[in-house]
Amino acid sequence: MFNKLGALTCALAITAALLPSAAHADDPRDASMRSPAARARDRAIIRRMNQDQLAYVRTRDAARMQAFRNARAGRDARYADARADYQRKMAAWRRAVAACNAGQRDYCDR
């Protein structure tokens, strides 16, 4: 029982210690953000970070789309090869059936 109570107390203490710093992360009463220059600098930093992240996401998505297209092209090529092979085998089978029906018994066992 003591271990559970101790763990709970420890978790609550850690949460209480971290809560004030998280709660004041975007404090509108922050003295360092009172000047228009500081707010403009902060806005510029945030804008640059957002633009960097947007560039990263666009690059990542373009790479993923290219990989998808390459995979699809490979799959389509394999399908076309398999389909052509199937068509060749079916044509040979049809010729064998026609030859068998025409009386050529060599083709009847295939």
Beta-strand percent range: under 5%
Gyration radius (Cα, Å) is: 36 Å
Total helical segments: 2
Q: Summarize model confidence as the mean pLDDT.
A: 85
- Characterize the overall form: elongated
What's the N-to-C terminus distance? 80 Å
Largest sheet: none
The helix fraction, in percent, is over 70%
Note the run of SSEs as H and E.
HH
Task: Give the beta-strand count.
Answer: 0
Structural class: mainly alpha
Which stretches are low in confidence, meaning pLDDT under 50 for 5 or more residues running? none
Brief digest:
This protein has 110 residues and is an all-alpha fold. Helix content is 80%, strand content 0%.
Task: Tell me what you see in this structure.
- By secondary structure, the chain is mainly alpha-helical.
- The mean pLDDT is about 85.
Question: What key attributes describe this structure?
Answer:
single chain; 110 residues; mainly alpha; 2 helices; 80% helix; 0% strand; elongated
Write the layout of secondary structure elements.
Layout: H1 2-23, H2 36-101
